[in-house]
Design goal:
344 residues, mainly beta, five-stranded mixed sheet, 26 strands, 47% strand, rod-shaped, binds 2-acetamido-2-deoxy-beta-D-glucopyranose, Ig-like_fold, Ig-like_dom
């Protein structure tokens, strides 16, 4: 039970209006004290509500009590008791005080779902802030936090600290890291109450790895025995960040033979068709590999104007061109020389 007591502070000022709020759910009684000049002044009370419109004089009832000369007490207040109450001087009909009894506007209380308070968020497992690892195996950098329903996420950062890539939940997992995995990383844990971060660096030392062998090269001789090679390189991966180079051999040779060689064999040597101006001298030979042909004139290189076409020599029919012509046929398996004397 709660009483509303309006304390008289101003005694000389008449016809005052007072608003009295009442919460009908919890308050049942209201005391209204008329603001008269003297406490002993006798007053009469009237009430009007929205239904009656006119003022009705109040008398004793079960719910309206006159505790003294100038006050009333309302008991078991209900909605229909709301309204305007006035106290007047019964002789002059001058209103001393007007009371507006209104229901207190209880603003809607928003429904709050009460979650159990989050336990404090804290890391229970974290990678070191500096980590040096090598390639070739699995590395796990786990981030774990306690604090109720916790969500832990991991990120790869750019050099400037901005987020480059979101990684899997719970930490950083690197299968056979490469030099590109060197850099900054971040773990973030949050629960409903807070968020915590941990930044760390990973430095990857990449030891070199040997590649597959290349195919064998072609035999370096096109007949008889030769060698061929194959290579492999330290590129799988290339050593980086101070990693070790490869120790395996990177070049292999082996003997090879594509076909047997055969020494030059003359198939034709002598004059072919002649015309009025020229002699045509042929020197044809076979062999593996195909033999080279070298013409000479009187034991020297041919003068330029002969216009030799390898297997056929064209000799102008002039006396000056008489002499000894030779054709040497050669390949790696052997050689021979044929001579002919020309008298023009
Ligand atoms: C109660 O308060 C609300 C919000 O302040 C307002 O919108 C509403 O009109 C008020 N009701 C009454 C009866 O005064
Ligand atoms: C940080 O670096 C990345 C790339 O390295 C770039 O895209 C980004 O704009 C940079 N952010 C800032 C704030 O400099
Ligand atoms: C590293 O990054 C460079 C540039 O993006 C790329 O060319 C290279 O292939 C990457 N290396 C590895 C092992 O992923
Ligand atoms: C925690 O972080 C995740 C991902 O960033 C986000 O979706 C979630 O809303 C966050 N939770 C809280 C309680 O902040
Ligand atoms: C190894 O490197 C050499 C020189 O760069 C190259 O010629 C060869 O093809 C490479 N071998 C392989 C197997 O990649």
């Amino acid at each position: 039970m709660l009483f509303f007591v309006l304390i008289v502070l101003v005694s000389n000022v008449l016809s005052i209006t007072k608003v009295v709020n009442i919460d009908l759910n919890s308050e049942k009684e209201v005391l209204l004290i008329c603001l008269t000049k003297n406490k002993e002044d006798f007053v009469t009370w009237y009430k009007k509500n929205s239904k009656t419109k006119t003022f009705d004089e109040l008398g004793f009832s079960e719910t309206v009590i006159f505790p003294d000369l100038n006050s009333i007490q309302l008991k078991d207040v209900e909605k229909e008791d709301l309204g305007i109450y006035v106290c007047k001087d019964p002789l002059t009909e001058v209103t001393f005080t007007t009371f507006e009894l209104v229901e207190k506007n209880i603003t809607q209380v928003t429904k709050v779902t009460i979650e159990p308070p989050s336990p404090p968020l804290q890391w229970v497992l974290l990678p070191n802030s500096e980590n040096t690892i090598t390639n070739g195996r699995l590395h796990v950098f786990a981030c774990r936090a306690s604090g109720g329903k916790v969500n832990v996420e991991a990120f790869r950062l750019n050099k400037n600290g901005s987020i480059r890539e979101k990684l899997r939940q719970g930490g950083v997992v690197l299968h056979n890291p490469s030099e590109n995995d060197t850099g900054k990383y971040l773990c973030v844990a949050n629960n409903s109450a807070a968020s915590i971060k941990h930044e760390f660096n990973i430095f990857v030392i990449v030891h070199g790895g040997i590649s597959e062998w290349s195919h064998w090269s072609l035999c370096n001789q096109n007949c008889g025995f030769g060698t061929q090679v194959r290579t492999r390189n330290c590129t799988n991966p290339k050593p980086a960040n101070g990693g070790m180079p490869c120790s395996e051999e990177s070049l292999q040779r082996r003997q090879c033979k594509s076909r047997s060689c055969s020494a030059p064999k003359l198939t034709k040597f002598g004059f072919d068709l002649t015309d009025d101006n020229n002699l045509k001298l042929d020197c044809f030979a076979t062999g593996i590999p195909t033999p080279k042909i070298l013409w000479k004139y009187d034991g020297d290189d041919l003068p330029k104007e002969y216009g030799s076409e390898e297997t056929r020599l064209i000799i102008p029919k002039t006396k000056a061109r008489s002499g000894e012509y030779s054709c040497t046929v050669e390949n790696p398996a052997g050689y021979f020389t044929m001579y002919i004397n020309v008298d023009l």
